[in-house]
Amino acid sequence: MNVGVDMIGLEYVSHEIDKGSHFIKRVFTTEEIKYCESQNNPVQHYAARLAGKEAVMKALGTGWGKGVKWNDIEVLRLINGNPYVRLHGKTKKIFENSGYSKIAITLTHYGQTALAFVIFFD
Protein backbone atom coordinates (compact mmCIF):
# COMPACT_ATOMS: atom_id res chain seq x y z
CA MET A 1 0.00 0.00 0.00
CA ASN A 2 1.21 3.51 -0.83
CA VAL A 3 -0.40 6.67 0.47
CA GLY A 4 -0.30 10.34 -0.43
CA VAL A 5 -1.87 13.34 1.22
CA ASP A 6 -1.93 17.01 0.30
CA MET A 7 -3.52 20.18 1.59
CA ILE A 8 -4.01 23.36 -0.47
CA GLY A 9 -5.11 26.84 0.54
CA LEU A 10 -8.01 28.20 -1.48
CA GLU A 11 -6.34 31.61 -1.48
CA TYR A 12 -3.38 30.18 -3.42
CA VAL A 13 -5.64 28.58 -6.03
CA SER A 14 -7.76 31.73 -6.33
CA HIS A 15 -4.62 33.81 -6.85
CA GLU A 16 -3.35 31.46 -9.58
CA ILE A 17 -6.73 31.51 -11.34
CA ASP A 18 -6.90 35.31 -11.16
CA LYS A 19 -3.56 35.54 -13.01
CA GLY A 20 -5.21 34.05 -16.10
CA SER A 21 -6.60 30.91 -17.67
CA HIS A 22 -3.13 29.44 -18.27
CA PHE A 23 -3.11 27.88 -14.78
CA ILE A 24 -6.47 26.16 -15.26
CA LYS A 25 -5.60 24.83 -18.72
CA ARG A 26 -2.14 23.64 -17.59
CA VAL A 27 -3.35 21.80 -14.49
CA PHE A 28 -6.91 20.61 -15.17
CA THR A 29 -8.56 18.54 -17.89
CA THR A 30 -11.62 19.66 -19.83
CA GLU A 31 -13.83 17.36 -17.77
CA GLU A 32 -12.45 18.70 -14.47
CA ILE A 33 -12.92 22.30 -15.63
CA LYS A 34 -16.50 21.61 -16.70
CA TYR A 35 -17.32 20.14 -13.29
CA CYS A 36 -15.60 22.85 -11.23
CA GLU A 37 -17.15 25.68 -13.23
CA SER A 38 -20.62 24.16 -12.72
CA GLN A 39 -20.30 24.51 -8.93
CA ASN A 40 -21.30 27.49 -6.75
CA ASN A 41 -17.70 27.92 -5.52
CA PRO A 42 -15.40 26.69 -8.30
CA VAL A 43 -12.23 27.59 -6.40
CA GLN A 44 -12.82 25.06 -3.62
CA HIS A 45 -13.40 22.31 -6.20
CA TYR A 46 -10.28 23.26 -8.18
CA ALA A 47 -8.31 23.29 -4.92
CA ALA A 48 -9.56 19.84 -3.90
CA ARG A 49 -8.63 18.43 -7.31
CA LEU A 50 -5.21 20.07 -7.21
CA ALA A 51 -4.63 18.53 -3.78
CA GLY A 52 -5.76 15.18 -5.22
CA LYS A 53 -3.29 15.41 -8.08
CA GLU A 54 -0.45 16.25 -5.69
CA ALA A 55 -1.46 13.40 -3.36
CA VAL A 56 -1.32 10.98 -6.33
CA MET A 57 2.16 12.28 -7.22
CA LYS A 58 3.28 11.67 -3.64
CA ALA A 59 1.87 8.14 -3.63
CA LEU A 60 3.66 7.49 -6.94
CA GLY A 61 6.89 8.76 -5.40
CA THR A 62 7.53 11.06 -8.35
CA GLY A 63 6.43 14.49 -7.23
CA TRP A 64 6.22 16.77 -10.26
CA GLY A 65 9.13 15.07 -11.94
CA LYS A 66 9.89 11.95 -13.93
CA GLY A 67 7.48 12.80 -16.76
CA VAL A 68 4.35 13.10 -14.62
CA LYS A 69 2.07 15.84 -15.96
CA TRP A 70 -0.82 17.59 -14.21
CA ASN A 71 -3.28 16.67 -16.97
CA ASP A 72 -2.25 13.02 -16.81
CA ILE A 73 -4.03 12.85 -13.44
CA GLU A 74 -7.78 13.45 -13.48
CA VAL A 75 -9.84 13.70 -10.32
CA LEU A 76 -13.43 13.03 -11.36
CA ARG A 77 -16.74 12.08 -9.75
CA LEU A 78 -18.93 9.04 -10.05
CA ILE A 79 -22.69 9.51 -10.47
CA ASN A 80 -23.09 9.02 -6.71
CA GLY A 81 -20.65 11.89 -6.06
CA ASN A 82 -17.67 9.80 -4.92
CA PRO A 83 -14.35 10.99 -6.35
CA TYR A 84 -12.10 8.74 -8.38
CA VAL A 85 -8.78 9.04 -10.20
CA ARG A 86 -8.20 8.39 -13.90
CA LEU A 87 -4.59 8.31 -15.12
CA HIS A 88 -3.16 8.92 -18.59
CA GLY A 89 0.18 8.86 -20.41
CA LYS A 90 3.44 8.24 -18.59
CA THR A 91 1.70 8.66 -15.23
CA LYS A 92 -0.56 5.70 -16.02
CA LYS A 93 2.47 3.60 -17.00
CA ILE A 94 4.30 4.48 -13.78
CA PHE A 95 1.23 3.44 -11.78
CA GLU A 96 0.83 0.20 -13.75
CA ASN A 97 4.49 -0.64 -13.01
CA SER A 98 4.09 0.17 -9.30
CA GLY A 99 2.58 -3.21 -8.45
CA TYR A 100 -0.72 -1.66 -7.40
CA SER A 101 -3.97 -1.94 -9.31
CA LYS A 102 -6.44 0.34 -7.49
CA ILE A 103 -6.56 3.93 -6.30
CA ALA A 104 -8.83 5.21 -3.56
CA ILE A 105 -9.19 8.97 -3.06
CA THR A 106 -11.12 11.20 -0.73
CA LEU A 107 -11.43 14.98 -0.95
CA THR A 108 -12.64 17.57 1.51
CA HIS A 109 -12.70 21.31 1.84
CA TYR A 110 -13.41 23.43 4.87
CA GLY A 111 -13.05 27.17 5.19
CA GLN A 112 -10.00 28.21 3.21
CA THR A 113 -8.41 24.76 2.90
CA ALA A 114 -8.84 21.70 0.66
CA LEU A 115 -7.39 18.28 1.48
CA ALA A 116 -6.96 15.03 -0.45
CA PHE A 117 -5.93 11.58 0.73
CA VAL A 118 -4.95 8.84 -1.74
CA ILE A 119 -4.26 5.13 -1.22
CA PHE A 120 -2.76 2.79 -3.82
CA PHE A 121 -3.60 -0.87 -3.16
CA ASP A 122 -4.12 -4.27 -4.84
UniProtKB/TrEMBL annotation:
Coiled coil: none annotated. One of its GO terms (molecular function) is holo-[acyl-carrier-protein] synthase activity. InterPro entries: 4-PPantetheinyl_Trfase_dom (IPR008278), 4-PPantetheinyl_Trfase_dom_sf (IPR037143), ACPS (IPR002582), Ppantetheine-prot_Trfase_dom (IPR004568). Its EC number is 2.7.8.7. One of its GO terms (cellular component) is cytoplasm. Mg(2+) binds at residues 6, 54. Its cofactor is Mg(2+). Keywords: Cytoplasm, Fatty acid biosynthesis, Fatty acid metabolism, Lipid biosynthesis, Lipid metabolism, Magnesium, Metal-binding, Transferase. It is found in: Cytoplasm. It is an enzyme of class 2 (transferase). It catalyses: apo-[ACP] + CoA = holo-[ACP] + adenosine 3',5'-bisphosphate + H(+). Residues 3-102 form the 4'-phosphopantetheinyl transferase domain. One of its GO terms (biological process) is fatty acid biosynthetic process. Its main location: cytoplasm. Transfers the 4'-phosphopantetheine moiety from coenzyme A to a Ser of acyl-carrier-protein. NCBIfam families: acpS, pantethn_trn. This is Holo-[acyl-carrier-protein] synthase. The gene is acpS.
